[in-house]
Design a protein that fits this description.
Elements: E1 3-8, H1 16-29, E2 34-39, H2 41-44, H3 51-68, E3 76-79, H4 85-96, H5 99-103, H6 106-112, H7 121-136, E4 141-143, H8 149-165, H9 167-172, E5 184-186, H10 221-229, H11 249-262, H12 266-273, H13 278-304, H14 307-336
Parallel strand pairs: 1-2, 2-3, 4-5
Helix pairs in contact: 3-13, 4-7, 4-14, 7-8, 10-13, 11-12, 11-13
Bound molecules: tryptophanyl-5'AMP.
Tryptophanyl-5'AMP is lined by residues 5-9, 17-18, 21-22, 40, 43, 130, 133-134, 142, 144-145, 147-148, 151, 192-194, 203-204.
C-alpha cells in the first residue's frame, strides 16, 4: 500500500502558505492513500518555545488540520511526542547520517543565523528526526511545500545508506528490496511556494516580523480582506498569459494564490483578469480568500471551544500510530543488532 506521512510545526499560527503548499494536498490524498498526519512538537523545541504557548499551538494546529478537512477516522492524526519511537529511530539515523550531509542543509544555516555556535544540537540534527518521522511509517509519499525538498533528499539518503549498511540483515529478515522505501516528495499545485505579501522575493513565513506579510488561518474576514488589498504589487495591469508574469514576483504570487484557492489554472485566471485593473483582481481575490478561509477559521474556533475533543483525536491517533511505529522499531532493532 502507498502510505503518506506529513507534518507541521506548532510554532505559532499556520498561514496561507502552509494551507496551500501542504494542507490542501493532504486532504486530497486521504481518498487515495493510507495517511498519517503529525503535529511535530519535538521539531518545534529545536528553538526555544514558551511552554504554555506550545501546548496551545499543538491544539490549534490540530484544529486547523481538522477544519481544513482531515478526517481523523480516515487518517491518523497525532502529535509527535506521544509516540516515543520517533525519538528512538531519530537516534539510529543520527548514527547513519554523515556530518557532511547535515552541513549542507540550508534551513539550518538560515535558522541558526550568524551565531551558529549557539544553535541547539537539536536544530542541527532536525533533518534526522524528520527522516525518522517519515520512515517510521515507511511512507512512500510526502506532500510538502517546495522549501522541504532538501530535507526529503536527505531522507532518501538516510534510507539508502541504512538499506546498504545492513543489507545482509535486511535480506535475512525477508525484505528483498531494502527495508526503507525511497520516499517521494509530492510538491504540487500552483502554490508550492507562497511568497510574502510585502516582498515577492521572500517566502511567506510564521517568523516574518510584519503580520501584513502573511494571511493567518486564524485571521477574520476583515483582516484577510485588508491584507489582500494592501498586498504589494507593481503598477502594471495583469498580463493575459503566464509568461507576462516573469520578473513580476508579487503579481505572480497573487495570481498563484488565486489559482490555488479557486482550483483553476494560472492560465484560466489570467484569461479572466488579464488586461484589467489590479484593484479589480485584488477585490476578487479578497472575496475568494474570505469565502475559502473564513469558514475554516470559524470551524477552528468551534473545535477549540471543546479542548477535550481535540485531545481525544490526538490520543486516538497516537494509539494507532504506535502500532505501526512499534513494528518498524522492532525490525530496526533486530536489523541493527540492538537486543530487545
Ligand atoms: P513547516 O512547519 O515549516 O511547514 C509546514 C508545511 O507548510 C509548507 N510551507 C509552505 N508551502 C508553500 N509556501 C510557503 N510559504 C510555505 N511555508 C511552509 C512546508 O513546506 C510544509 O510542508 N520540517 C517541516 C515539518 C516536518 C515534516 C516532517 C514535514 C517535520 N517532519 C515529515 C513532512 C514530513 C517543517 O518545518 O514544516
Amino acid at each position: 500500500a502507498q502510505r503518506v506521512f506529513s507534518g507541521m510545526q506548532p510554532t505559532g499560527n499556520l498561514h496561507l502558505g502552509n494551507y496551500l503548499g501542504a494542507l490542501v494536498n493532504w486532504v486530497k490524498m486521504q481518498d487515495t492513500h493510507d495517511c498519517v498526519y503529525c503535529v511535530v512538537d519535538m521539531h518545534a523545541i529545536t528553538m526555544w518555545q514558551d511552554p504554555a504557548a506550545l501546548k496551545s499551538a499543538i491544539r490549534e494546529v490540530t484544529a486547523a488540520y481538522l477544519a481544513a478537512g482531515l478526517d481523523p477516522k480516515k487518517s491518523i492524526v497525532f502529535n509527535q511526542s506521544k509516540v516515543a519511537e520517533h525519538a528512538e529511530l531519530a537516534w539510529v539515523f543520527n548514527c547513519v547520517a554523515r556530518l557532511g550531509w547535515l552541513n549542507r542543509m540550508t534551513q539550518f544555516k538560515e535558522k541558526a543565523g550568524k551565531d551558529r555556535e549557539n544553535a541547539s544540537v537539536g536544530l542541527y540534527a532536525y533533518p534526522c528526526l524528520m527522516a525518522a518521522d517519515i520512515l517510521l511509517y515507511r511512507a512512500t509519499h510526502v506532500p510538502v511545500g517546495e522549501d522541504q525538498k532538501q530535507h526529503l533528499e536527505l531522507t532518501r539518503d538516510v534510507a539508502q545508506k541504512f538499506n546498504n549498511d545492513f543489507r545482509p540483515q535486511i535480506e535475512a529478515a525477508g525484505f528483498a528490496d531494502g527495508f526503507f522505501p525511497m520516499t517521494e516528495p509530492v510538491i504540487q499545485g500552483p502554490a508550492t511556494r507562497v511568497m510574502s505579501l510585502r516582498d515577492g522575493s521572500k517566502k511567506m513565513s510564521k517568523s516574518d516580523a510584519s503580520d501584513y506579510a502573511r494571511i493567518n488561518l486564524t485571521d477574520d474576514a476583515d483582516a484577510i480582506a485588508q491584507k489582500v488589498r494592501k498586498a504589494k504589487t507593481d503598477p502594471e495591469p495583469l498580463p493575459s498569459e503566464p509568461k507576462g508574469l516573469e520578473g513580476r514576483s508579487e503579481a505572480e504570487n497573487l495570481v498563484g494564490i488565486y489559482a490555488a484557492l479557486s482550483e483553476r489554472s494560472v492560465e484560466a485566471v489570467l484569461a479572466e483578469f488579464g488586461g484589467g485593473q489590479f484593484s479589480t483582481f485584488k477585490n476578487a481575490l479578497a472575496d475568494l480568500a474570505v469565502a475559502k478561509l473564513a469558514p475554516l477559521n470559524a470551524d477552528m474556533r468551534r473545535l477549540l471551544a471543546d479542548p477535550g475533543f481535540v485531545d481525544g483525536v490526538l490520543k486516538d491517533g497516537a494509539e494507532r500510530a504506535r502500532v505501526i511505529a512499534a513494528e518498524t522499531m522492532n525490525h530496526v532493532k533486530d536489523i541493527v543488532g540492538l537486543l530487545r
